[in-house]
Write a structure and sequence with these properties.
Helix content of chain B: 25-40%
Distance between the termini of chain A: 45 Å
Radius of gyration of chain A: 19 Å
Largest sheet of chain A: none
Number of helices of chain A: 10
Strand order of the largest sheet of chain B: 2-1-3-10-4-11
Order of helices and strands of chain B: HEHEHEHEEEHHEHEEEHHE
Shape of chain A: globular
Strand content of chain A: under 5%
Distance between the termini of chain B: 63 Å
Largest sheet of chain B: 6 strands, mixed
Helix content of chain A: over 70%
Structural class of chain B: alpha/beta
Order of helices and strands of chain A: HHHHHHHHHH
Shape of chain B: elongated
Oligomer: heterodimer
Number of strands of chain B: 11
């Protein structure tokens, strides 16, 4: 039982870490665009980006299932390469990343909005190209918020249940995460196992949320 | 930046699955079967060398996954209704009634009592009766059907506490929030603070069926067919019986 609990805890933590890494590039990009650009349809992009936060996770899961399922547009495109998402660890990561993304985008966006534009303009007058300005000025100045956002996304990923059970299922040793494990063990009356997972889950979430809150605090 | 992308690519490479090498059978089974199917998978692999991978969840979720084309080989549903929703995904003539279960009335262990019939639930001592939500949870549908059949649904419906799963109905009794619950007989296996008040006789209760079927989008139809045949044999029957299920056999 101990190794099983440990396996689930390690797998969940790793999957949440990978999900955080996966959500960083699109999350940072989206946050920057939303913070710095005005364009037609911005309100729609903003709303879409926060949709996973307000929709029932199971609904998000059903949408993902429709997209990446073998009959869905993405699933059909990947099929010739022998890649299947549903019921694999990749599905766990996908569900976690989608659910964590809105938190990252929101927090990182606030960070970009706080960056004084004058510093960027100064870098430009010194001859830095836009990409260099972004990586050497904007990004470091917003890094605290990005880190906080990434941690929030990570905590959300750690606890993800609704979307995960729909697209990844509950397969021991392959896709079973902490939250899904607690559900499965509760449903089969294995209360001791559920309680162990609960303890692990509380500990991990407490630590991550504590650090995220510290980072997000504006001093 | 290049180093960063290299890391990213490495991470992606580790999560993106490679096509399965070994032939295995992927079974999607109702959540209530999670424990017993784990045992089944272990023993079946020992006997035949075929690996059985078990995915568990609420039957309606499992059905949605199959409808989306998930490569499930064998599906064991907790009720016929969910099996019905994916009729087109099933290999013709493979659906069988695999297992049955029995309803039971449970009460808190510190206030044990024995009932002769669920009719006694109208007793004022039962102020709150927990059942799975009859709108969605199969166990709740069965419980409500039984109370209706007895003609006491109007009398007790005011005392019913619907729960999100049959396990939560049992939990409500275990923590004293409800005075009684109608659950499956198998749910009692792991219950410590609930005691059996009445096992509703099979002949009087609703027909509870766990149907199983081979799924068309599976990758190992032959393996699924063989596993299903084994599940209906004597050794599997013994394992199911040990967990409190009623094997329906051949």
């Amino acid at each position: 039982m101990q190794t099983e609990i440990l396996d689930i805890a390690v797998f969940t933590t790793l999957a949440a870490l990978v999900a955080t890494v996966v959500m960083l590039p699109p999350g940072i990009g989206l946050a920057w665009v939303l913070a710095r650009h005005q364009f037609r349809g911005k309100a729609i992009v903003e709303t879409l980006a926060s949709l996973p936060l307000v929709m029932p996770p199971v609904a998000t899961g059903l949408m993902l299932l429709w997209l990446v399922g073998r009959r869905g547009p993405v699933g059909r495109a990947l099929a010739p390469f022998g890649i299947e998402i549903v019921f694999t660890p990749a599905a766990v990561v996908l569900a976690m990343a989608i659910m964590g993304l809105p938190l990252l985008v929101r927090t990182a966006r606030a960070g970009f909005e706080q960056v004084t534009k004058r510093y960027e303009q100064m870098a430009e007058t010194l001859g830095a190209r836009p990409w260099r300005v972004f990586t050497t000025v904007t990004l470091p100045l917003a890094s605290r918020n990005i880190l906080a956002g990434a941690l929030l996304g990570f905590t959300r990923a750690l606890g993800e249940f609704g979307a995960t059970i729909v697209v990844a299922g509950s397969i021991p040793g392959r896709t079973r995460t902490l939250a899904v494990g607690i559900y499965t063990y509760t449903e089969t009356g294995q209360d001791a196992r559920a309680a162990s997972l609960l303890a692990v889950s509380v500990t991990l979430a407490f630590g991550a949320a504590l650090i995220a809150n510290r980072l997000a605090r504006v001093d | 930046m290049l180093r960063w992308w290299a890391t990213f690519a490495l991470v992606i490479a580790t999560v993106v699955p490679l096509p399965a090498q070994r032939p295995e059978v992927l079974v999607s089974a109702a959540a209530s079967l999670a424990d017993v199917m784990g045992t089944i998978a272990r023993i079946y692999e020992m006997r035949t060398g075929t690996r059985v991978v078990v995915n568990t969840g609420a039957s309606n979720t499992l059905a949605r996954q199959i409808a989306a084309g998930a490569a499930v080989d064998l599906f064991i549903s907790a009720d016929e209704a969910q099996m019905g929703t994916i009729r087109e995904e099933v290999v013709a003539n493979t659906t069988v009634d695999l297992l049955s279960n029995q309803l039971a009335v449970v009460v808190p262990a510190d206030r044990p009592r024995t009932l002769r019939s669920a009719r006694e639930l109208t007793d004022a001592a039962f102020r709150r009766i927990a059942i799975g939500d009859p709108a969605a949870v199969p166990a709740g549908v069965y419980a409500k059907a039984h109370l209706q059949q007895l003609g006491i649904w109007p009398a007790v419906s005011g005392k019913i506490v619907p729960t999100a799963s049959v396990r939560l109905a049992l939990a409500a009794v275990e923590n004293g929030a409800a005075d009684a619950a109608i659950v499956y007989r198998t749910d009692l296996n792991a219950a410590h603070r609930a005691s059996l008040a009445l096992a509703i006789p099979l002949a009087e209760g609703p027909r509870i069926i766990y149907p199983a079927a081979v799924i068309r989008s599976g990758r190992n139809r032959e393996g699924a067919t063989r596993l299903l045949a084994w599940l209906r044999g004597t050794e599997a029957a013994g394992i199911f019986k040990g967990a409190g299920f009623i094997p329906l056999g051949q």
